[in-house]
Amino acid sequence: MNIRNQTNPHRWLGVLAIVLTLVLWEIVAIFVVNDAFILPSPPDVLSAFIGLIEKGRLILDFRASLVHFAIGLGLALAVGIPVGIAMGWSRRFDAFIDPVIEILRPIPPLAWIPFAIIWFGLTPLSAGFVIFIGSVFPIIINTYSGFRGVPRIFVEAGRMLGCTKGWNQIRFIAFPAALPSVAAGFRIACGVGWMCLVAAELFGVSNNGLGMALWFYYNLHQMDCVVVYMLLLGLTGLAVDMAFRYYMDRHFLKWRTGEVA
Amino acid sequence: MGNLRVSDLSQSFAREDGSELTVLDHLAFDVEDKEFVCILGSSGCGKTTLLRMIAGLDTARNGSIVLDGEAITGTSPKIGMVFQEYSLFPWRTVIDNIAFGLEMKGMPREERYRIADRFLALVNLSQFRDSYPSELSGGMRQRVAVARALALDPVLLLMDEPFGALDAQTRNMLQQELLQIWEKTKKTVIFITHSVDEAVFLSDRIIVLTPRPGRICRIFPIELPRPRDRTSVEFARVRRDVLDLINQNCSIQ
Hints:
The complex is a heterodimer.
Chain A: H1 12-33, H2 42-55, H3 57-89, H4 91-104, H5 113-120, H6 124-148, H7 152-160, H8 166-202, H9 210-219, H10 223-251
Helix pairs in contact in A: 2-10, 3-4, 3-6, 3-8, 3-9, 5-6, 6-8, 8-9, 8-10, 9-10
Chain B: E1 4-14, E2 20-31, E3 36-40, H1 47-55, E4 62-67, E5 70-71, E6 79-82, H2 94-98, H3 100-104, H4 109-122, H5 138-150, E7 156-160, H6 168-185, E8 188-193, H7 196-202, E9 205-209, E10 216-221, H8 233-250
Parallel strand pairs in B: 3-8, 3-9, 6-7, 7-8
Antiparallel strand pairs in B: 1-2, 1-4, 4-5, 9-10
């Protein structure tokens, strides 16, 4: 079992690629570009990183961004999962709400920024709102399709075993059956939300945050600091995704190991 | 108790062009308590439709199904079902699958595990207690499905070609195991199959259905003593009789 998830023996190649990229970056920065404004070199970035930590700014921005992200994603889950379940479970509700969702969904989340500022001011809630808009739709759609895809045989087997109330059927049968799809939706939502976070902060929706700081240092022309924030954004996104996948696989989706070849 | 009376049962579905497709046509038969009855018929003769109505999953257009004096109007814990497809909940371990019905009844965890463990032992799968269905073979999954259906202590056990997807050897083994379980638990069993061999091996009586629309062609008591030996002359003779009957009277006219 679980052979697929075991460590790939060629994994060190990935580490090698990272090292090579850093070396290449250094060479290009020093010998080709030779201008720290256009392309800061890795040591520049490292010292900028240390400087930012010493100033205490980095941790503050980091915390602000995580708060924005948590607000947005928390709201998206709180709204998206119930709406997705209701749409997937009731054809009537689906027919009712679907047109509204289909009209709202293609509006790029960033187009909501003006109203986010008008409604919530320059507060964390405002950035959270933009993230919410970006991440709620993938959650709704995936929860919905997960519920639609629940095999009828599970519902019928449940009925034969006394699981006859609608609420119980959702809780004990449809939701666990749909969970892989819901989880996939949440992962997509995390990715979209993280992008919206940067954009929302960049547009000054909030006074702190990684995206906000990135823009701030660009205006100061301190490009080494900009790179620090870029890397931090990428690594945090990666860490969030990995932590989520690990947690889900470990606690909720154990049963799927070995199911799909 | 597990006396079933099916009277004047008909079922039809609306076709797309508006006409009616009759699937079952005025069926009537009784099944006695603790009896093992096979319903035999070719595919498309409405066997599964019949079983689903007895299960309470579907409602008949006409006629009635009465279990121990009570008309069947919906699913009930008195009736257990083993489906043709794999129907175990893949997100639950074997023991939690078996305990599912007890959990729905609101039984506390320890108690339901105690009962579930007993049925797990009955199907000889105790060492797979905490495995997930995806880790089991097809035959093992159907044994767990039997244990899951029995855990609620139904009076009537319905089985819809439960061994249809298995290879011949596994199927023979499971048939024997099923008879042992039936002798231990003494349930009324209605078992659907299209295999004459399976029907002769298992049943007290075989109800043969005609194809499209399903009508009762003949009810055939099997008087061979158990355990039955597939390779014996008597077994072969009974099997031939049933086959002859089907070929002469119960096939497509």
